[in-house]
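HOLO CASE FILE
Compound: S-adenosylmethionine
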Amino acid sequence: MKRLPDDSIDLTVTSPPYDNLRTYKGYTFDFEGIAKQLLRVTKLGGVVVWVVGDATIKGSETGTSFRQALYFKEIGFNLHDTMIYKKHAPHPPNVRYWQCFEYMFVFSKGKPKTFNPLMQMKKCIEKNPNRASTYRQKDGSLKALNKNAMKRFKKAAQNNYRIADNIWEIDSGWMKSTADKIAYEHPAIFPEQLAEDHILSWSNPGDIVLDPMCGSGTTCKMAALNDRDYIGIDISEEYCELSRWRIRAALSEGVS
Ligand SMILES: C[S@@+](CC[C@H](N)C(=O)[O-])C[C@H]1O[C@@H](n2cnc3c(N)ncnc32)[C@H](O)[C@@H]1O
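Model generated. Tokens follow.
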């Protein structure tokens, strides 16, 4: 990342190594160094999506995800949204409930310059349209949404859709995260849909999308298929080659 110019990246979608859950061929990573570089290379209004979960060590979750989120804030990012990726392939329980989610921290440098929200069928809005057009203030009273938010809301309501929730349920696991069999040579891929939905939400065609720990190349592949430019970096040359292979195959076949 040190070779990238300042203020050059529109969007980063990435997932770091989670504590020591996987060894990734023995590489280590300097979290604080990467976070600072991300701040430097991100354009004003650009966004970083950081997908992360915690290991459980001696019966206690590490809380690394929260520490990392607070560090991003400390160095100057906004914590724009704490989103949840709900998996369809959860980890089996061990004296606790099924472990079925990871965090998707959405950081922004200043206010996000792009937001193309995903929509979902509205349910509660149908029952009480007035409630959905207001929000509660500190003293408990209701206040109407501002003009722009109201416009967006009305347009969505007319079409029977509203802006989607910030919990995304995404199919994951063998042949669900991707149809590229070769991608599973990497031990910890995230689903193509996760990368694509963030790319569509926080960037526009022609923007530059970065994944500084690109693993099997999921973010780069989905950026390429959605007419974004992309930069993928991984400390493992083997994973870089895997990424190149997937991107080439996707672009030559024209399939996702
Ligand atoms: C959770 S995986 C990313 C998987 C990716 N999102 C995908 O869908 O394939 C984390 C990646 O970080 C890479 N990594 C670890 N330390 C790194 C470092 N210092 N610099 C760059 N990449 C690193 C690992 O090789 C691994 O591929």
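CASE NOTES: DSSP finds eight helices and 13 strands in the chain. Helices lie at 31-41, 64-75, 124-127, 129-132, 147-158, 192-202, 218-225, 237-253.
CLOSED: yes
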